[in-house]
């Protein structure tokens, strides 16, 4: 299958979201519901998703209009490989996050406890595509914090004293494993590449209310069961690092591929399915004929296993290549 699979984004309202996807990525976000009303805060754009409650729809090409689920059911051998069961979901979910305000302090259940809690594990990687001056992330506990100290701070509303908060800059990234307590501070535009899961346990929400004006649901018992109590002060991978691999987990690997204008990135046929994300710049398929596609910052596409592809940078570009998930 010599076709890059690109999809219609699915936009999600979030109390902590904003409208930065319009300006940073040139997206047309949903307008206000009625004249005179403020447009809804869009916190997430689900770029690639195969879940019962949310399906990406192919945009363009021979599979135009098919959901990702339908595409795999009909062309799974070409997209994922001959051994891929057609009923098995695409294992990665890709999102853009516009974090205008701080997200809740939360955790995703580790695989060992997720079935008992009726949830799904979720390991995720955050790539900081842009951020306001002074932006921070929260991942893990401060060194030496115990569960007892954490629970006392939860009761006293002083949890910020227990978690590891650190500054970030454009191009930084961090791999967040299931079981790591975390939150994203306001002012961050993040490309999140994660396991196909939508289980999040909130342990603390900074006194905030939801879009309906009511406090959002907390999941204290599940959170305390899920948190890794020996996870202290993990470090991000900084943009200045020369590391080609920015995330290497059991669930997926992400490579960072910088390209100068005119340089090419090649994918051989028959290896594995991959996801190509344009974090900076722009590329075009080559050879440049009438059927060639161009992709700009913010685009996320699936490269089927059966296809061979060449992408040429039309300006200085950073690609993220997600692989080892099939």
From TrEMBL:
A GO molecular-function descriptor: zinc ion binding
Binding site for Zn(2+): 108, 124, 182
Swiss-Prot/TrEMBL keywords: Isomerase, Metal-binding, Zinc
Alphabetized InterPro entries for the sequence: Carb_Metab_Reg_Kinase/Isom, Man6P_isomerase_Firm_short, PMI_typeI_cat, RmlC-like_jellyroll, RmlC_Cupin_sf
Cofactor binding note from Swiss-Prot or TrEMBL: Binds 1 zinc ion per subunit.
GO BP terms: carbohydrate metabolic process
One Pfam entry name: PMI_typeI_cat
Active site per UniProt: 202
Cofactor(s) the record lists: Zn(2+)
Domain spans labelled Phosphomannose isomerase type I catalytic: 5-117
Protein name in the entry: Mannose-6-phosphate isomerase
UniProt organism field: Termitidicoccus mucosus
